[in-house]
Specification:
Blueprint (H helix, E strand, L loop, with lengths): L17 E2 L2 H11 L6 E5 L7 H7 L4 E5 L5 H7 L6 E5 L7 H5 L5 E6 L5 H9 L5 E9 H8 L9 H9 E9 L4 E2 L6 E8 L10 H11 L7 H4 L6 H7 L12 H14 L13
Parallel strand pairs: 2-3, 2-5, 3-4, 5-6
Antiparallel strand pairs: 1-8, 6-9, 7-9
């Protein structure tokens, strides 16, 4: 038997919107499909609405990361009878998920993420490599659309390429504001990110790749010729078989990797304006 959570006023500075809809909670748990023996880590358990069915599915074993210290005593009381329930107090953005994983099985990471940290946190987790088996997050629907956006989609941007370089991305279902207390002003959605066992397109220099992607999307309405003019001229685009008048949102992950690898292979710090490039 699990104790009920103590009432807690949501804090704007933590971006707190507590999930209340039992149907949505059940749908999220079904999407995750947690099983006994897996290492689940929930980010931002809040008042335990999702925590409760997760801990039941894993037969009492669950780790959570919670920043709001006022919520932690309530969580300890609520799940006191589960010795495998572990609370990590702190900011998930500062957690070393490789270290948390250690020599154990890869982590399955879940959470109803505050909108103000969703993008940096996902970026942080993508850098954890094989320490993470998969991720299921509830996010602002706009962020989920960006994560899943394919080539030629107006939502496609730097986050799309970063996520899809490392993971397969599936937008699962939308969640209305009425499912939360207090109600957010936006529609949410649940997304699944599954890291590739082997990267489909391995860049020779990932730091350079993401620098190129950032520059390409710096002014998304402009062409590749304009946004990457300090790195590539029309002759280079011809060698790459990429039309320089295309816009960045039309490029696939493979094409971005091809551009970055071309710059690595050239290895001369080339820039049409004659200046050396810092990547």
């Amino acid at each position: 038997m699990t104790s009920r959570p103590v009432l807690h006023r949501a804090r704007k500075r933590f971006g707190q919107n507590f999930l209340r809809d039992r149907g949505i909670i059940s749908a999220i748990v079904r999407s995750i499909g947690p099983r006994p023996g897996e290492r689940l880590v929930e980010i931002g358990p809040g008042q335990g609405a999702l925590t409760e069915p997760l801990i039941e599915a894993t037969q009492g074993h669950l780790e959570v990361i919670e920043l709001d210290r006022d919520l932690i005593p309530g969580l300890r009381v609520q799940f006191f009878n589960h010795p495998g329930f572990v609370i990590h107090e702190g900011d998930a953005l500062k957690v070393d998920f490789r270290e948390l994983c250690g020599e154990g099985a890869p982590l399955r990471v879940v959470g109803n993420l505050p909108y103000n940290i969703s993008t940096p946190l996902i970026t942080h987790l993508l850098g954890a490599g094989d320490a993470v088996a998969d991720m299921h997050f509830m996010l602002q629907q706009e962020v989920v659309e960006r994560l899943a956006a394919s080539e030629n989609d107006s939502q496609r941007g730097r986050l799309s390429v970063l996520a899809q370089y490392y993971c397969s991305v599936e937008s699962l279902f939308s969640v209305p504001p009425e499912a939360f207390v207090p109600q957010p002003k936006v529609v949410s959605a649940v997304v699944r990110l599954t890291p590739h066992a082997t990267l489909p397109y391995q860049a020779k220099d990932e730091t350079l790749l993401f620098s190129v992607v950032r520059e390409a999307f710096a002014q998304r309405r402009k062409t590749l010729r304009n946004n990457l003019k300090s790195r590539l001229d029309d002759a280079a685009f011809a060698v790459l078989d990429i039309d320089p008048v295309r816009r960045p949102q039309t490029l696939s992950v493979e094409e971005f990797v091809r551009i970055a690898d071309y710059i690595v292979d050239r290895g001369d710090g080339y820039a049409p304006d004659g200046e050396e490039q810092n990547t």
